[in-house]
């Protein structure tokens, strides 16, 4: 707020609102409504995914100024996420998850993906990892 960066401030408020919404939704749960770090990372990962989809729609519609706004929001949100894994690190993580779950075939994709999501939330794009896991098990 002190830097007078309206775009950054607006994005930070969106992140805060999304986390508060999740806290409100979690109030009736047995753990008393606490939202853990993993859940916050998941919220921010979903926010990035939503902005990528919006950006694509704006570009297809010729609304480049709105697409640029979405791209700027993505950059701000990514500042708070862990570093994204490289292709080599992703391959190693997939291999470790396959070994950890004892996966042997295509039917085990769900278990491997669940294992990856518990360990590497916010560090990899699970939309692009799915085909890699399928190729590894197929």
Summarize the structure.
The chain is mainly α and 138 residues long.
Total domains: 2
Described by strand count, sense and barrel closure, the largest sheet is: none
CATH topology heading of the largest domain:
Hypothetical Protein Yqey, Chain: A, domain1
The count of helical stretches stands at 6
Supply Rg: 18 Å
End-to-end CA span: 51 Å
Give the helices and strands as they follow along the chain.
HHHHHH
- CATH architecture tag of the largest domain: Orthogonal Bundle
Structural class: mainly alpha
CATH class of the largest domain: Mainly Alpha
* Average pLDDT: 89
What does this 3D model show about the protein?
This protein is 70% helix and 0% strand. It has 2 domains: 6-78, Hypothetical Protein Yqey, Chain: A, domain1 (Orthogonal Bundle); 87-137, Arc Repressor Mutant, subunit A (Orthogonal Bundle), CATH 1.10.10. The chain is globular. Helix 4 (87-101) packs across helix 6 and helix 5 crosses helix 6. It has helices spanning 6-25, 37-60, 64-78, 87-101, 109-119, 126-137.
